[in-house]
């Protein structure tokens, strides 16, 4: 059985994924202007990927006997494109840090499935971070 620590980390990951799924989708919907036009499809694509992460993590937590949270971390939409992307980049950095900790905890608990799940998600998050970093270079 998973430790209380691992279950709490999984729920924190779900709250984070829900946050950015909504955040990126609303940024996609609300952004206007020429610069935003090039970014909005990417925000939508990443927002959908984040919701899929939330679902996969929730399924794992449920399997382990936990109850997935429905409450996202605080959502930040922003007003200017640069402000949005800087926050999005920071959110991805937070996810990368959390998911590395989650992988280490799963490894320590000999939970191969959770470890593998987060290794895949971590790869996606690093890609999202790279995307936001690249988009910021263009502004």
Structural descriptors:
139 residues, mainly alpha, Ferritin, 4 helices, elongated
Secondary structure: number of strands = 0
Which spans of ≥5 residues are poorly predicted at pLDDT below 50?
A: none
What structural class results from the helix and strand content? mainly alpha
Helix content: over 70%
Overall pLDDT score: 95
Order of helices and strands: HHHH
Task: Give the overall shape.
Answer: elongated
Distance between the termini: 48 Å
Our Rg estimate from Cα atoms comes to 15 Å
CATH hierarchy, class = Mainly Alpha
Please provide a written account of the structure.
The chain is mainly α and 139 residues long. The chain has a single domain, classed as Ferritin, core subunit, four-helix bundle (Ferritin). It has helices at 4-30, 34-63, 81-108, 112-137.
Q: What's the structural blueprint in terms of helices and strands?
A:
Layout: H1 4-30, H2 34-63, H3 81-108, H4 112-137
Helix pairs in contact: 1-2, 1-3, 2-4, 3-4
In a few lines, what is going on in this structure?
The protein has 139 residues and is mainly alpha-helical. The protein has four helices and no strands.
């Amino acid at each position: 059985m998973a430790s209380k620590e691992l279950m709490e980390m999984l729920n924190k990951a779900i709250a984070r994924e829900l946050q950015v799924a909504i955040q990126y989708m609303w940024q996609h919907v609300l952004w206007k202007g020429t610069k935003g036009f090039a970014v909005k499809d990417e925000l939508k694509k990443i927002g959908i990927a984040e919701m899929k992460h939330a679902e996969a993590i929730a399924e794992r937590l449920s399997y382990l006997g936990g109850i997935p949270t429905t409450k996202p971390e605080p959502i930040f939409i922003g007003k200017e494109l640069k402000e949005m992307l800087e926050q999005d980049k920071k959110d991805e950095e937070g996810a990368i840090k959390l998911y590395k900790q989650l992988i280490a905890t799963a490894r320590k608990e000999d939970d191969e499935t959770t470890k593998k799940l987060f290794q895949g998600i971590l790869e996606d998050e690093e890609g999202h971070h790279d995307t936001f970093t690249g988009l910021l270079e263009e502004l």
